[in-house]
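Hey, quick one: can you model this chain's 3D structure?
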Amino acid sequence: MNESHVQQILHRSYELDHGHYAVGVEVQPYKLMGVMARTDGSVTARASTHLPEMEPHDVVEHIAGLVARLVADALGSGFPRHRICLGVQLGGPVEKTTGMVRHYANGPDDRGKDKPPPYLWVDFPLGAALRAATGCVTAVENDAHAFAAYEQRFGAGADTDTFGVVLIRDGVGAGMVVRKERLPVLMEFGHLRASRRGRLCDCGMRGCIESQAGNRALTAVVTERTGRRLDGLEAAIDLADGGGAQAPLALTAFRGAGAAIAFGIGQLLSLLSPGQVVVYAARDLITGGPGRLAANAFLHELHRFHAHAFHVSRHCQLTAKPLNPVRGAHGAALIALQSCFGVRLHPR
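Sure thing. Here's the predicted structure for all 348 residues.
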């Protein structure tokens, strides 16, 4: 055995005796993704599971089971829980200090025949419920903030002290890191009003970014303009890319979505002057090229974000990345390490 291997064994032994660890979990409709991370932020294990129900207490039970599996596989079932923290993120407004989920639901278009059952969480104490179920100190955060934490440690944070993350899923969210500190407030980016006379948003206002952009809204707008019944974003992209008689109508929806997101990014630039904005979205929405008409239309408008910003703040790099649930869970673990054990998220 050479000296390098001996050092690795000694380091691992010290970690097991003195180190702290974090489990990060991303909650998505009817599925969980989890990772185990060391104090340095590196991932040592990952696992996923299906959720048969979205009732909050049932979700808590499944998260606890996922945590137990990751801890047993990576550290052993007897590892002391006071040295393990838990970070959980989901796509809804969260009170960071209390771990209270203010509102989490599937949208009106996601409910009905042949679709998963509706679910609605209102003021659910997720943090307290998970602490009781797992024995781990717990941090609960919004999903866009978790992706911002991942970027702070492993992405944009290496290039700039101030950057933003825009997360496009069923809805649209955002997180910001300003001068190396993640903004602790919930940013309702998707409900900035891009147009006074726009579509009615699920929130009840008109013209929100989220009434035009986001997987749910994009599918709805393409349906409204073409009259075609569509089963999700992939079907909307296929229609726009297909070159048929209705393709031009579908493409106007993708241009409108790109313009709405560009408007929102312009507001971030004017307010906070980020040096970089990272947009996370479905791969087929942000991968342009020959034959990818929907993505090309979306990206063309998205890259016009400078036109919506105060001219002094227009120097900003835009990067688009495909959604990755492991990164979301990883970001939740990093937030837990920071908030529970005081670990600094220095860029790697």
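One thing worth noting: The chain has a mean pLDDT of 92.
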